[in-house]
Amino acid sequence: MFSKRRDAQVQAQNRLADLDGKMAAIGRSQAVIEFDLDGVIVDANPNLLTTMGYTLEEIRGAHHRLFMDPVEAASPDYAAFWRDLNAGRFLAAKFRRLAKGGREVWLQASYNPVFGADGRPAKVVKLAIDITAHEQEAARREALRIEAEQAQTVLVEALAGALGRLSAGDLTARIDAAVQGDHVRVRDDYNAAVESLRQTLGQALGAIAALRGGAGEISSASDDLSRRTEQQAASLEETAAALDQITATVKRSADGARQASTAAAGARTEADRSAEVVRQAVAAMDGIKRSSAQIGDIIGVIDEIAFQTNLLALNAGVEAARAGEAGRGFAVVASEVRALAQRSAEAAKEIKTLITTSGQEVAQGVRLVNETGAALAAIAVKVAEMDALVSEIAASAQEQATGLGQVNSAVNQMDQVTQQNAAMVEQTTAAALSLKTETDQLARLVERFETGEVQPRVHDLSASAPIPLARERARIRAFAGGGAATAASQDWEAF
Question: What is the domain partition of the chain in residue ranges?
């Protein structure tokens, strides 16, 4: 039993220590003050004392209305405020309070009733943060905003009146109201804009007459230019048609030259092939000549063999005669061998004679084939020269066809551009007529503005001094009138 009581005491002490720690943490960051239920100050931490400028001895025992504006403290709302706290209701808001010396202080605060053991409110603890600087800055900005709105209202009213007069054509409408700050720039910019517009319209009144006269002359010159451009377009169209025919003719010539070049190249190829065949024939004839010589050598050997055989047969016959009856058969054989050797020798002589004759004919054939090869080589050289010349002719014809094609394209493009220029000139003529009409209408519109100066009317300006564009008008008039050729060329370049 004693142990349980001790544990309960320890837990209570721990809770109190924890509560004290939390209150200390709150007190380090916020202003804390305690009241009894009647609003009498019981205690306050250093943060609150520093914020309000009092010491604890100066405020302890004093009532909460010490920090209040007297008028607010006497109001029914203040009495209701303490009744709600006594009823245990929590209150949090921004509050305006008075520090020592009547200095204004703004607090973001909460009034927290603290309940006793019987569950009824026993005291009130106030937690607060000083937001005076923020609130005063907000109040300053609000005052500046109100002041700016008032100044803007003055400017808007003055600007509305001036714009009303301006919309009615009065260019002397100015803003003379007294304004401040950035509104001075708005007033000055408006007055400067109106003044610039007044001067511009004044100059426009003087320039519209010149514009009207120039528009009339431009219209006349544009009409004449349109006729001349149409004639030029027709001439270019005829030139383009003629160039088309020339281009087609040159193209056909180029095609024929290409075909001739192809035929010459074929002839050169055939000549080269014939020369090659002749070279092969010469080589074959040389082979035959060498073979004939070799056969002649072989026939010589055969003739030599026949001679030796004949000699041996003669010797054998002599020996057979010496042998008498015993050598008779051998003598017959020797006689036959001798006869065969003689026939072989005679045949070899005949073959040698034929081979010699064949060799001479082969040599003559080789000479003739060599002469044919030389002639074909000369023909091949001439054909190569012809091929080169025809190739150059074909290349030149192709270049001419290409060049004429480019010229034809350029002329066709010039024809299209000239046609377009003709259409544009017609549009320019129509635009010039429209410009003259619009200039008259512009003159009537501008005359309704009041610039505060005496301006001659537009219809009276036609008899005034020469306009600044007189020289350019004279050039256009000389071109449109078709003067001398040189003058017309100079005027056209200048135009």
Answer: 15-130, 225-433
Q: What is the CATH number of domain 225-433?
A: 1.10.287.950
What pLDDT, in 10s, does the model give residues 308-356?
Answer: 887 777 787 777 777 777 777 767 777 778 788 778 778 877 887 887 8
Q: What pTM was estimated for this model as a whole?
A: 0.35
Secondary structure (DSSP) of 449-477: -B-SS----GGGGGGSSPPTTHHHHHHHH
Chain centroid offset of residue 285 CA = 76
Tens digits of residue pLDDT in 437-477: 877 777 777 766 666 665 555 444 444 444 444 555 555 45
Please report which helix (H) or strand (E) contains residue 349, including its range.
helix 328-446
- The single-letter code of the amino acid at 58 is E
* Topology (CATH level 3) of domain 15-130: Beta-Lactamase (3.30.450)
How far, in Å, CA of 416 to CA of 251, rounded?
A: 24
Instruction: Return the closest-CA partner of residue 475 out of 456, 460, 488.
Output: 488
DSSP SS3 for 43: strand
CA–CA distance, 172 with 195 (Å, rounded to integer): 8
